[in-house]
Design a protein that fits this description.
- The complex is a heterotrimer of chains A (about 240), B (about 220) and C (about 220).
- Chain A has about 240 residues and is mainly α.
- Chain A has one domain.
- Helix content of chain A is about 80%, strand content about 0%.
- Chain A has seven helices and no strands.
- In chain A, helix 4 crosses helix 7 and helix 5 runs antiparallel to helix 6.
- Helices cover about 35% and strands about 25% of the residues of chain B.
- Chain B has a five-stranded parallel beta sheet, sandwiched between helices.
- With about 220 residues, chain C is mostly helical.
- Chain C is built from ten helices and no strands.
- In chain C, helix 7 packs antiparallel against helix 9.
- The radius of gyration of chain C is 18 Å and the shape is elongated.
- Classes of the chains: A mainly alpha (about 240), B alpha/beta (about 220), C mainly alpha (about 220).
């Protein structure tokens, strides 16, 4: 089965139904392995055990950005090729990306509480992550506001691409903004180099998170395709009744 | 029961829409309000239900519950369907039945009467213009009221739906209701009398206060 | 009573369905608060000091944002004609629409306020004071705002006009809401006095709002 075949929604459904149990199983194994490794990683000599939050925090930050990347590619598919499966991929990715970004923000502020003495600081990295979260919520709100999925898809695709162009600028300007106001309020983690004992579990966790994302994304795409089929059937029912 | 108007006049935006309109409709009767576009057919119906203020003349209803106004005993079917696209067909009807009626109404029977029973769970957004119109008409069936004020009731309906509405109107008349309908075409009902708004005097018959004032300023 | 119950359920359902604005107000609230540190700088001490004022301003704008469609949608689809004809007094109909609107847009703001307060470094006591003032004060914003919504019902650019009409009327609510919230934060002034006045303003608007809005709707719909 080639990728082109998967572009057909029916084939995609077949593929999703067959692949999902396997993907789910592999994800569970990867998490079991990764969490085990993470628990075994040494504590930081300054931060103690709280440093282990990193194994959730960093991968979810990556995934939060990866999901926007996937949405952007799907947006190109929507706008250039007008492919319905691209709409579905974009719509399904948004809530998952938002969830990972929220996880990143929550773990970050739980991590920050013992380190900085407060749940939130307007640090450049946290702030751009918050802006990313807001953009996700905006896209989700747009999907929820327009009833016709193909119209919503085009609007959301434009917003996603503008966001993709704007995100680096936001990141850059937030960095610049924060350094301008350097002073008592800027907190930074010590720029410690990462030891292999920490790097390995981190990479395993990143793989596990990516697998989780893929599993959730395929499941969400399947649900969205089924939801659209129901919608089409009901529209046909309304038309058939004179 | 008898609904009558004497020497009714209506002004909108400083312009006289109609004046000197008198009519009387009794139980079991239909009054078809006809006239060219802009003659004031819609305004007359809206005046009767109190959505437009009576500029002159009077409206009386005899032989009904004296506690209730005309509007509270009338169904008004306007140009718009008063439906919410995100609610289902049944939810839309259930709301109006709950809001307008005091008793629990038979939603399923009312939907069946307009032929929408198979679409009850669909969002109203999926309906065609004719289906939306029929869902609006289902409100008249679900909640019993003696007076029906219909503004172009046959518009957007196909032949089968027009027949069905004709049947509903005949049943309403047989139960002792009365109908006031603004229309261009024939309603196909017995005991139909016609009120031609062109003839009873449009804007030209009797200049209103504002028009007189306008004429004076022109002269001076 | 069943009429009003049916109306309350319908309006709340519409708010949470596709195209309803239930959570967009909260999102707007969050975005506005996020923008403030970019404008004033990431100084947590300063943000904490102005936190209640920022949250109150954002809540005020978010409440007004969703209000312009309160009667306009019903006017456009003809529902308002039927609501006007009803035996149920228009004042009660309008009040119930206001309650439904507050439950779907005002109450979520109150619930979200503590989370957003975290971003501005507000401590637990200040959070509690803020939530309490918003809980008591946001109904006043909805019920004052509905007067503007009723006046602007038939206008095309109603949203902007609504803000211009209503914002000056909300000045007292803002003054006493922020004063009460700041009293908790700073501990300098008593909390009770501004809070009681805020309660009084809310109660008064619950009465004045529906009467004025109903009068405006009767005038506008001709």
């Amino acid at each position: 089965m080639s990728l082109v075949d998967l572009a057909n929604p029916s084939r995609f459904l077949k593929f999703a139904n067959r692949a999902l149990p396997w993907l789910g199983g592999v994800t569970v194994i990867a998490f079991a392995f990764g969490l085990n490794q993470a628990m075994g990683a040494p504590d930081d000599y300054q931060q103690g055990a709280t440093v282990k939050i990193m194994f959730l925090h960093v991968p979810s930050a990556w995934l939060g950005m990866l999901a926007w990347g996937i949405m952007s590619i799907a947006a190109l598919g929507t706008l250039v090729w007008r492919h319905p499966l691209a709409d579905v991929a974009a719509k399904a990715a948004a809530p998952i990306g938002a969830a990972f970004t929220l996880l990143c923000l929550v773990t970050g502020s739980l991590w920050g509480r013992p380190e900085w003495g407060t749940y939130w600081v307007w640090d450049a990295r946290l702030t751009s992550e918050l802006v990313l979260f807001l953009l996700y919520l905006g896209v989700i709100a747009l999907w929820r506001t327009v009833e016709d999925p193909s119209r919503a898809a085009r609007a959301a695709a434009i917003l996603t691409l503008v966001g993709a162009v704007d995100l680096p600028i936001i990141k850059f300007s937030v960095d610049w903004w924060n350094t301008l106001h350097q002073g008592a309020s800027v907190f930074r983690l010590g720029g410690s180099t990462i030891y292999p004992t920490i790097l390995m579990p981190l990479l395993v966790m990143a793989v596990a998170f990516t697998l989780l994302f893929v599993t959730l994304h395929i499941a969400a795409m399947r649900n969205e395709i089924l939801r659209r089929r129901v919608r089409t059937l009901r529209l046909m029912q309304a038309q058939a009744t004179s | 029961m008898r609904l009558s108007a004497s020497n009714l006049a209506c002004h909108r935006g400083g312009r006289e829409v109609f004046a000197g309109v008198s009519f009387a409709v009794a139980a079991g009767e239909v009054l078809a309000v006809t006239g060219r576009n802009g003659a004031g057919k819609s305004s007359l119906l809206r005046t009767v239900v109190g959505l437009v203020r009576v500029a002159q003349g009077s409206l009386t209803l005899e032989g009904c519950d004296p506690e209730l106004t005309i509007a509270e005993q009338a169904h008004y079917l306007g140009h718009q369907d008063a439906l919410k696209p995100s609610l289902s067909v049944a939810e839309n009807l259930k709301f109006w039945a709950g809001f307008l009626g005091r008793k629990a109404a038979d939603i399923a029977a009312a939907l069946a009467a307009v032929g929408l029973d198979s679409l009850a769970d669909l969002p109203a957004a999926y309906l065609s213009a004719g289906q939306r119109r029929r869902l609006s008409i289902a409100r008249l069936v679900a909640v019993k009221r003696p007076i029906w004020l219909l503004d172009e009731p046959m518009s957007t309906l196909d032949a089968a739906a027009q027949d069905r509405l004709g049947g509903l109107m005949r049943a309403h008349l047989a139960e002792g209701g009365l109908i006031l309908a603004a229309t261009h075409g024939p309603l196909g009902l017995p005991a139909t009398r016609e009120l031609r708004l062109d003839e009873v005097g449009g804007a030209s018959a009797q200049p209103s206060a504002s028009q007189q004032w306008g004429a004076e300023t022109k002269l001076s | 009573m069943t009429s009003l119950g049916a109306l309350l359920i319908r309006d709340m359902r519409l708010a949470v369905r596709v195209g309803g604005g239930a959570l967009i107000g909260v999102l707007f609230f969050l975005v506005v608060v996020t923008l403030v540190p970019f404008a004033v700088g990431p100084d947590l001490a300063l943000l904490k000091r102005i936190g209640p004022a920022v949250l109150w301003l954002a809540a005020l704008l978010a409440s007004l944002l969703a209000l312009d469609r309160l009667f306009a949608v019903d006017h456009e689809d003809g529902s308002l004609d039927l609501l006007l004809m009803s035996k149920t007094p228009l004042e009660l109909v309008v009040a119930v629409k206001g309650v439904a609107h507050w439950l779907t847009t005002g109450l979520p703001l109150v619930v979200a306020a503590p989370l957003i307060g975290l971003l501005l470094n507000l401590d637990a006591a200040a959070q509690a004071g803020l939530v309490l003032t918003l809980l008591v004060g946001t109904p006043a914003l909805t019920f004052i705002g509905m007067i503007g919504a009723a006046i602007a019902v038939a206008l095309r650019r109603g949203g902007l006009l609504l803000a211009v009409l209503v914002l000056p009327l909300t000045v007292p609510v803002l003054i006493f809401g922020v004063a009460a919230a700041n009293a908790v934060l700073l501990g300098a002034a008593p909390f009770g006095t501004p809070f009681t006045i805020l309660c009084a303003l809310s109660l008064a608007s619950l009465v004045v709002g529906p009467f004025a809005a109903a009068a405006a709707l009767r005038q506008e719909i001709e």
